[in-house]
Amino acid sequence: MVPSRVFFTHGVGVHKHRLQSFELALRDAGIERFNLVRVSSIFPPHCKIISAVQGLSYLKAGQILHVVLAEASTDEPGRLVCAGLGLAKPARGDQHGYISEHHGFGLNNKKTGDLVEDMAATMLATTLGIEFDPETGYDTRKEVYRMSGKIVLTRNVVQTAEGNKYGLWTTVVAAAVFVP
């Protein structure tokens, strides 16, 4: 099976039990009613990015879905938790791209977004033979990637949250959901 469509979503959940905070994060992302199977990070050739609303309209409760999923949880009050995905899509539709994921602590939306987008773009650039200096900042490398004409799109989806002030579990998720 090679998916022809994908949508991106994110969410946050808070509850006294970690599992239920995860369920609430999935609910916030709109994907709690599916059986999720985690897959690695290849963006399929010819795959079309669609909206979450459109993607969800194709799906049925209980359906098994392949997802690239980043998730992180904390029960420490005020601790910043983050989950993010980056996408790098090649200009040629018959080539695969990359989806990177990061989950952790201490990074805000912008830093998480830049990190995951950079990872995905760098993986794709090395696959496509784009020459770049890995020691330069992402903004500089991003321009090199774009100027090569080989990478047509980079983007990210991120969810961050501060741990609940009462010590309840706070969970964040970011997902790329492949639609059959």
As a percent range, the share of helical residues equals: 25-40%
Main beta-sheet annotation? 5 strands, mixed
- What is the distance, rounded to the nearest whole angstrom, between the alpha carbons of the first and last residues? 8 Å
In CATH, the architecture is 3-Layer(bba) Sandwich
Count the DSSP helices.
4
Look up the CATH topology.
Answer: Pyruvoyl-Dependent Histidine Decarboxylase, Chain B
Overall mean pLDDT stands at 95
Q: Specify the CATH class.
A: Alpha Beta
Strand order of the largest sheet: 2-5-9-1-4
Strand content: 35-45%
Counting DSSP E segments of at least 2 residues, the number of strands comes to: 9
Runs with pLDDT <50, length 5+?
Answer: none
Number of domains: 1
Instruction: Give the class from helix and strand content and strand pairing.
Output: alpha+beta
Describe the secondary structure blueprint for this structure.
Blueprint: E1 5-15, H1 18-29, E2 35-38, E3 42-43, E4 48-49, H2 52-57, E5 64-74, E6 80-90, E7 97-105, H3 109-128, H4 138-148, E8 151-162, E9 169-179
Parallel strand pairs: 1-4, 2-5
Antiparallel strand pairs: 1-9, 3-7, 5-9, 6-7, 6-8
